[in-house]
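EI: anyone free to look at a 227-residue chain?
SC: sure, send it
EI:
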Amino acid sequence: MKLLIIEDDASLQEIMQRALTSEGYIIETASSAFEAEDKIAGYSYDCILLDIMLPDGNGLNILRHIKELKKEDRIIIISAKDSIDDKINGLDLGADDYIAKPFYMAELSARIKSVMRRGSGSVQNSMSAGNIMLDLQSRRVNINGKDVPLLKKEFDILLYFMQRPEHIVDKAVLAEAVWGDHIDMVDNFQFVYAQIKNLRKKLAEAGANINIKAVYGFGYKFTETEE
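SC: here you go
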């Protein structure tokens, strides 16, 4: 799941980024309204953590802009201003939740899960395809009853594919989802090919009955192997 942190306090932004990254989220950051609007225009996020007071603008204007673009990103307002008017205005404009500074990271994490649960109807703790079982909380992979150790990005790639069975996934879209927005600055996708090659090898050695097929000119397709 990919989050955008819009926060101009560098130390708080770093704390949030480290804590949420450790929970398995893909994190992008913005320190100004200009930077935030540029990222929001070009990319999609599962959840946006939005500070109201920014050095070059008001977070509520960014919220209005998001809604004008008809984006479905979940939004949690984060602000030191704990007035009832700010809460009402933010929620009226379409924010999903509001948390006042200072806050505990455990509370922020719970708020994120709560708004995502409201959006999807549930929060999954596991996912399966064929004989593969993913534990999304511990980030463990089990194949044929045995744990299979995967690197972080290998797990993220496998999860992304399992969420899109039988869909052709463009390699650039996969790279953005797993590595983040700065991926558009790279010259090629050799690192994606290398990660998928390693993932395929580990899955095959563990006896997984799925296949990540290369679709020439497009990307990849995740399918279950026929018996």
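EI: The domain at 127-224 is CATH 1.10.10.10 (Arc Repressor Mutant, subunit A).
SC: 👍
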